[in-house]
Design brief:
binds 5'-O-[(S)-butoxy(hydroxy)phosphoryl]adenosine, EC 6.2.1.1, AMP-bd_C, Ac_CoA_lig
């Protein structure tokens, strides 16, 4: 952003039913925020004491910018909170996970059952030589075993790196190699739109280039069962059957790593965001409970995949730490028909529903008749995440799904923040288009390049001013990239988003300020797509931009120059799309490819995506003084 700009803010408010506020975990946002600001350490101390620890902390936080430590020297295991605490008490027989397969198959796993499954798989991992600090990569469809695998790693102190099952072999190999994972856990297949996704085949392509992997655990779903390679592969069911039933939770230091999760960088390779045990547990537990206002009888359905941070924090760790029932479903929102989600809400009596704007906009397009067929009266709270929830989508979600009765919690956060940072707390007035205010616990602002707050109505950079418990601690193997987050604007963590505040302090998120593209809620780096394109024989250079799309928020448009002698003949566009799909997976495939003679570049040779984008959108390209002749 070269200069400041003003945004016209529409003032529309929705007041939730006063009863929501009266019973909310945070009944008075303003008071809670003030209490937090008066003494942040006392605030977090009080929340952390609601959880169980093997040993308490010496200090709540230590801040040597840009490095923070939380719950210093405390000892814990996050699974003791997500499992043992509930299984040993009144939640023993309460469903922890309710799973629906695409074909309608259902599995209910109680807290006691999950506790035992996790311990067995944890012992299974140990028998493969996995120990504290070792990395385990998980590449699975949305089945309960995916969550069991994550928790089993946490149980023994192994660091999990979950790779979304929609990624392709190159994306998988890069992530395995960066983390030097010792074991890979996969399923033979996933099911999507009635078709099988050959995860094991995709994984085996990746495994040709991943020397660190010693063993592959395979969950076999197909009948007849696929034959395994006895040299490298181990059957999931066998491993669990042979394992001892009890596995005590490993004693972890608060600052020991819990997991690595890759997120696209604006330049270069994806970044392995590192989260640690203590602060992440406290941050996700607190936000799950307070932002979704979880009560004992609630049934929470977060439609994300555990392969994204949304799933890590609000399917697995946060809700299970609270002790709620979570619903997971394999498959897509409009299969076998556009009523699939609403049928599930009705069948399972879902009370808290958390999804992405791209899904909401898709449902809007299918029309009101689909949700009208089902009884959605159990719904109590509706959440949104991933990109701005535009006012039209807000209205539709609020009226058609929520019946004008459910508060909408639009949550702004990132892989890096680990936990929600902005939302409109249940019971507070809602403003369509605005995510809301920083939660009690987050100190945020909208500032100019030098870090000075911009006035209401003026756009600026969204920043976080103080450390928070679930913040990333580093970028795996590249601490320089971690420090970069705190360097762009003095004294602040720069989120990379543009935003604007109104007079009441509500924040409207406008989108990314850098070269990331958020497609249907998935964060895609331009660099990764460009290098996939360039790896095709016909391509000389490539530049990709995000192009606004009414359904997906943004889609990817690629500009490509071809090698000398190659012409954009028949089928090249399709071939390039196939090539990207094969290498990175369907999420990264450009919606449009345009062939050019040359790309606009700076004199120093950097591709000016900004110029391409302005041309594409019919906008002023801004300062082009650095553009080469
Ligand atoms: C980026 C982070 C956090 C889980 C999903 C994506 C965008 C996220 C919102 C929201 C507007 C949002 C931002 C952010 N974003 N939530 N409620 N309103 N924008 O995680 O892949 O790390 O992406 O998603 O641009 O920086 P992620």
């Amino acid at each position: 952003m070269e200069q400041t700009f003003t945004v016209k803010l529409e003032e529309k408010r929705y007041l939730p039913d006063p009863r929501c506020k009266a019973t909310a975990w945070t009944p008075d946002y303003t008071r809670a925020y003030q209490e937090f600001m008066r003494d942040p350490e006392a605030f977090w101390d009080r929340i952390a004491r609601e959880l169980s620890w093997f040993e308490s902390w010496d200090r709540v936080r230590e801040w040597n910018p840009p490095y923070a430590r939380w719950f210093v020297n405390a000892k814990l295991n996050i699974t003791a909170n997500c499992l043992d605490r509930h299984a040993a008490g009144s939640r023993k027989d309460k469903p922890a996970i309710v799973w629906r397969g695409e074909d309608g198959a259902e599995r209910v796993i109680t807290y006691d059952g999950l506790h035992h499954e996790v311990m067995r798989f944890a012992n299974g991992l140990k028998s493969l030589g996995v120990g504290k600090g070792d990395r385990v990569c998980i590449y699975m469809p949305l089945v309960p075993e995916q969550i069991v695998a994550m928790l089993a790693c946490a149980r023994i102190g192994a660091v999990h790196s979950v790779v979304f099952g929609g990624f392709g072999p190159d994306a998988l190999a890069m992530r395995i190699n960066d983390a030097e994972a010792k074991v890979l856990v996969i399923a033979d297949v996933g099911y999507r739109r009635g078709k099988t996704v050959p995860l094991r085949e995709l994984a085996s392509e990746a495994l040709a280039h991943t020397p660190s992997v010693e063993r592959v655990v395979v969950l076999r779903r197909e009948t007849p069962a696929v034959e395994l390679d006895p040299g490298t592969e181990v059957d999931y069911a066998d491993l669990v059957a042979r394992a001892a039933p009890d596995c005590p939770a490993e004693v972890m230091d608060s600052e020991d790593p819990l997991f690595i999760l890759y997120t696209s960088g604006s330049t270069g390779a994806p970044k392995g965001i590192v989260h640690t045990c203590g602060g992440y547990m406290v941050g996700t537990y607190y936000t799950a409970r307070h932002d979704f206002d979880i009560k004992e009888t609630d049934i929470l359905w977060c439609t994300a995949d555990p392969g994204w941070i949304t799933g890590h924090s609000y399917i697995v760790y946060g809700p299970l730490a609270v002790g709620t029932t979570v619903v997971i479903a394999e498959g897509t929102p409009d299969y076998p028909d556009p009523g699939a989600y609403w049928r599930l809400v009705q069948d399972l009596g879902v009370t808290i529903f958390y999804t992405a704007p791209t899904a909401i906009r898709m449902f809007m397009r299918y029309g009101d008749e689909w949700p009208a067929k089902y009884d959605l009266s159990t719904l109590r709270i509706l959440g949104s995440v991933g990109e701005p929830l535009n006012p039209e989508a807000f209205e539709w979600y609020y009226r058609t799904i929520g019946g004008g009765r459910c508060p909408i919690v639009d949550t702004w956060w990132q892989t890096e923040t680990g936990m929600h940072m902005i939302t409109t707390m249940v019971g507070e007035p809602m403003k369509p288009g605005f995510a809301g205010k920083p939660i009690p616990g987050a100190v945020m602002d909208v500032v100019d390049r030098r870090g000075f707050p911009v006035p209401p109505g003026t756009g600026g950079f969204l920043v976080i001013r103080e450390p928070w418990p679930a913040m990333l601690r580093t970028v795996h193997g590249n601490d320089e990239r971690y420090r970069a987050y705190w360097k762009t604007i003095p004294g602040c963590y720069t989120a990379g988003d543009l935003a604007v505040k109104d007079e009441d302090g509500y924040i409207m998120v406008l989108g990314r300020a850098d070269d990331l593209i958020v497609v249907a809620g998935h964060n895609i780096g331009t660099a990764e797509v460009e290098s996939a394109l360039v790896s095709h024989d016909a391509v000389a250079e490539a530049a990709v931009i995000g192009k606004p799309d009414p359904l997906k928020g943004h889609v990817i448009k690629a500009f490509v120059t071809l090698r000398v002698g190659v012409s954009p003949g028949d089928g090249l566009t399709d071939d390039l799309a196939r090539h990207v799909r094969k290498s990175l997976g369907p999420v990264a495939v450009p919606a449009e490819i345009e062939f050019m003679d040359r790309l606009p570049k700076t004199r120093s040779g950097k591709i000016m995506r900004r110029v391409l984008k302005a041309r594409e959108l019919g906008m002023d390209p801004g300062d082009i003084s650095t553009l080469e002749e």
